[in-house]
Specification:
Layout: E1 8-20, E2 26-38, E3 42-46, H1 53-60, E4 68-73, H2 78-83, E5 87-90, H3 102-112, H4 117-130, H5 146-159, E6 164-168, H6 176-193, E7 196-201, H7 204-210, E8 213-218, E9 223-229, H8 244-256
Parallel strand pairs: 3-7, 3-8, 5-6, 6-7
Antiparallel strand pairs: 1-2, 1-4, 8-9
Length: 260
């Protein structure tokens, strides 16, 4: 496993989330989720549709308030962390503004923060260089591939210099070849920035390749059914997928879903 800090970044205790359905009945999305996420860790929330993994990510991000339980982020409430801009969020789609150039899309949250224009430009250029898009700063989103658009989304999320990067299935719509390239790019960026990353996915191989730990969530209701350490050497390349160790982790996680 990579060297992960011993400091707890995110503490989740007995988290539960219940919604009201259209028929006014209770729908339990999450129940009794308890875990710690450590500073500098790359952790994946893995599970099938309906297991509550995106709900859990949104609770961490202060986009949802849990029905029960306790959560702290660096010793603060999620709201306090959000107001201090400790989060950068990357969604399934890049959500870029078509009328703004790549550079100006990355600058947008910095402009909202009212940073001086020169600082906005310098930070955007630095983030675009980090994600390998320095030469595309003046392009528009329609001129980029899906994978390049997602890199812009990552650059924009990192531009505010967050401590935690939250990623909600950011590569799920991409083809396998593009996804593999972005996996390696993301790990490179993670090594350089030392962010804590919480990554939502339904892809077992993706979770094993990227993560220090995989949090397996089972549905009906959503619950933490396994928390698996991934003890594969870093830095990782796609060649690790051909090893017996990698195959073993995939099999172990797949077996944890049996009987669901």
């Amino acid at each position: 496993m990579a060297a992960v800090g011993t400091d707890v970044e995110i503490m989740l205790k007995d988290i539960g989330m219940t919604y009201k359905s259209n028929t006014n009945t209770d729908v339990v999305a999450l129940t009794n989720v308890t875990m710690n996420i450590y500073k500098g860790e790359f952790i994946s929330l893995l599970g099938p549709s309906g297991c509550g993994k995106t709900t859990l990510l949104r609770i961490i991000a202060d986009l949802l308030t849990p029905s029960v339980g306790e959560i702290t982020v660096g010793g603060e409430t999620p709201r306090e962390a959000r107001l201090k801009r400790k989060y950068g969020i990357v969604f399934q789609g890049a959500v870029l503004y078509e009328w703004r150039t790549v550079k100006k899309n990355v600058m947008l949250p910095l402009e909202i923060m009212h940073l001086p224009k020169k600082d906005c430009e310098e930070r955007a250029e630095k983030m675009l260089e980090l994600v390998g898009l320095k030469d595309f700063a003046k392009h528009y989103p329609r001129q980029l591939s899906g994978g390049m658009q997602q890199r812009v989304g990552i650059a924009r999320a990192l531009a505010i210099q967050p401590e935690i990067l939250l990623m909600d299935e950011p590569f799920s719509a991409l083809d396998e070849f593009t996804r593999e390239r972005l996996h390696e790019d993301l790990l490179r960026i993670w090594r350089k920035t030392n962010k804590t990353i919480v990554f939502v996915t339904h892809n077992i191989q993706e979770s094993v390749f990227l993560s220090d730990r995989v949090c397996v969530l089972s549905p009906h209701p959503g619950r933490l059914s396994a928390l698996i350490d991934i003890d594969l050497p870093r830095p990782r390349t796609v060649q690790v997928k051909n090893t017996p160790e990698f195959t073993g982790y995939v099999a172990q996680i797949r077996s944890s879903f049996e009987g669901i």
